[in-house]
Specification:
- Helix content is 24%, strand content 29%.
- By secondary structure, the chain is α+β, with helices and mostly antiparallel strands.
- The N terminus is likely disordered.
Length: 278
């Protein structure tokens, strides 16, 4: 089993003041340039530092268009709002906003994830403006079995973020030409406004759902028991409470809201599969 550190992204989610149900996921990243072709970013050379942020408003997350249970596709093509990538490289400060997202042929605009695509897991954030060939991609990948970077096809519940960091790559390139700037990830963190604790995202989903107050209370109690166990250092007990939570979701949510049930079960399973270590 993986060590409990593998769920560190959940344990360090940061609480912040935000409007009701406007929970923004942020990825802060820093990369070092390893390859430069052409002159997309004058003055940026091999060894230069690129820093940036991905921002996703979960309230505006599109529906997953791919029916396969191991592939998640959240398309922002044609101007769907709520997703941005900005970065700084040398004297350049560049911002991509999905409101300008292209529907042209070429790099697809959106968030895409795959659970064990043959020999690896991966998560891509991709943006390109309409009528502009220049695209930006931030890619996270896990190539070490057992693949635990992506567990299922739900964003962000399925993501065990830390597992994809070591092979993360930033790319800024001409979609139809040769010019490109490629950078190897140095560091990355993921946070969600209004969410804290190992079970914070699950709490958010339950509390913002349309479930009855009684069912919300039953599920929240199970999550609070897990959270208290984790806080005391009793990881095994925390995982047992999460399994109890999954059973309650099956019994109380499956029939009334199967999509919510799947997200909750997947999110809990990502924590369970990360495990406690020895």
């Amino acid at each position: 089993m993986k060590t409990k550190d593998t769920v560190v992204w959940l344990a360090t989610l940061v609480a912040a003041v935000s409007p009701a149900w406007s929970h923004v996921l942020r990825i802060e990243f820093s990369s070092q340039v390893t390859q430069v072709e052409g002159s997309l970013l004058p003055g940026v050379t091999v060894g230069s530092t690129i820093t940036g942020q991905v921002q996703v408003d979960l309230a505006q997350l599109p529906q997953d268009y791919d029916p396969q249970p191991t592939i998640g596709g959240y398309s922002y093509a044609g101007g769907h709002p709520g997703f941005t990538i900005r970065f700084n490289a040398g004297s350049h400060s560049i911002m991509y906003d999905s409101i300008n997202g292209s529907r042209d042929p070429g790099v697809s605009v959106g968030i895409f994830l795959t659970d064990d695509a043959g020999n690896h897991d991966w998560l891509n954030f991709q943006l390109r403006n309409q009528d502009d060939p220049i695209a930006v991609i931030l890619n996270f990948e896990d190539v070490t079995p057992p693949f635990t970077h992506v567990i299922g096809d739900y964003f962000p519940e399925s993501i065990n973020f830390k597992e994809g960091i070591p092979r993360a790559i930033f790319q800024y390139f001409d979609n139809f030409g040769f010019a490109a700037v490629i950078a190897r990830n140095v560091s990355a963190t993921m946070t969600i406004d209004g969410v804290e604790g190992v079970t914070g995202l699950l709490m958010l989903r339950v509390n913002s759902s349309n479930l009855s107050a009684q069912r919300k209370r039953s599920l929240v109690n199970a999550l609070q028991a897990a959270e208290e166990a984790f806080a005391k250092g009793d990881c095994e007990a925390g995982l047992r409470h999460l399994k109890t939570f999954q059973n309650k979701v099956h019994a109380q949510v499956d029939k009334s809201d199967p999509m919510l049930a799947a997200r909750l079960i997947t999110g809990a399973q990502a924590i369970i599969e990360a495990g406690c270590g020895n």
